Amino acid sequence: MVLDDSSKLVNRRRFVKYTGGSSIAALAGCLGGGGDDNGDGNGDGNGGGNGGGDDFPSDTFNTIVPYAEGGGSDAYARHFTAELADITGTDYQVENLPGAGATRGMTVLHDRPANGYHMGLASPPASGLMTYLLEPDRLDWDYSDFSGLAVVGRSTTIVTANPDLGIEDYEDLAERVRSGEFTTTGGPGLGGIEHVAYVFMKENHDMPIEDFVAYDGCGPTQQAVASGEIPFGICSEPSAQPFIESGDVEPIADITTSGGLISDIPSVADFGYADMDSFGYPTRCLLGPPGVPEERREALSQAFKEATETESTQQWEEETGNAVLWGDHEEAEQAWKGAIESIPEEVNLDAVREDMQE
């Protein structure tokens, strides 16, 4: 799902009128007293304590990233969890739990206490694709279970190549794939946006790529492209940016019609190929376990709004190229559920499953 200008999502530089727009500092204290945090009451540093009515927030925030360190989701999670902790005067920790196309990390998040201290950085539709690709009885939770907390950004997905290969543009890449010169590509894991893009390119761009190498994140993918292990790779634009700036890889095309959110990158549509807008725009959402109280969701939403407006976030955005925007807890839930629900309509799931089994 591509979120357009009619959405409540807003760029950090734009003014947003939000009902009750006070900071979380003003909300802290009004949420304590008599509530059940679903914790063990021991304040163990993992957000499991504070049962029995302590002011919220007053414990450690824990953010799960269902991908390896060094990728786009990891960058957003680490920056905004740190900003949240700074704004609220609390501690934080980030856990990277990659595996099974984000399903491992999302499963752990699902089972954490719904007290507002546990959250995960999801990037729909990528973080939910595997829920369709796995056998139904492999998961004991549903994608609609999670509690939306906030949206903090969006990115796009691009194709990069080894500069030594002299690939002129996407059309040249496609022709050289058809000629048999290039037979392999790669990206971060099976069942994610990049893997789906690979299947889409084979089916819709007449590119008979034989193999997709699954790496443990975008960082390793770009390293493989730079070293010549694979001729070209598919990855999120922010994750590829350091490799582009160093000259280790070069951008070939954006798989969506955005043409790059960080720098000017031609779209595959510019060369007459079908775009991948329906799944190529990861939205960076903070989600909580099922059942996070509404008051705490609202408080966290406001805290993340404040986090998108800090000077340090502005500097981070300018230095990294990670696009920052804000959406409230309802928008986060809508972005997550809407993107996941659109997957069967936009993605040939049977073709992706078949490729995963080869």
UniProtKB/TrEMBL annotation:
It holds the Pfam family TctC. Residues 39-54 have a biased composition (Gly residues). Residues 39-58 are annotated as: Disordered. Transmembrane segments: none annotated. InterPro entries: BUG (IPR005064), Bug_dom1 (IPR042100). PANTHER family: BLR1237 PROTEIN (PTHR42928:SF5), TRICARBOXYLATE-BINDING PROTEIN (PTHR42928). This is Tripartite tricarboxylate transporter substrate binding protein.
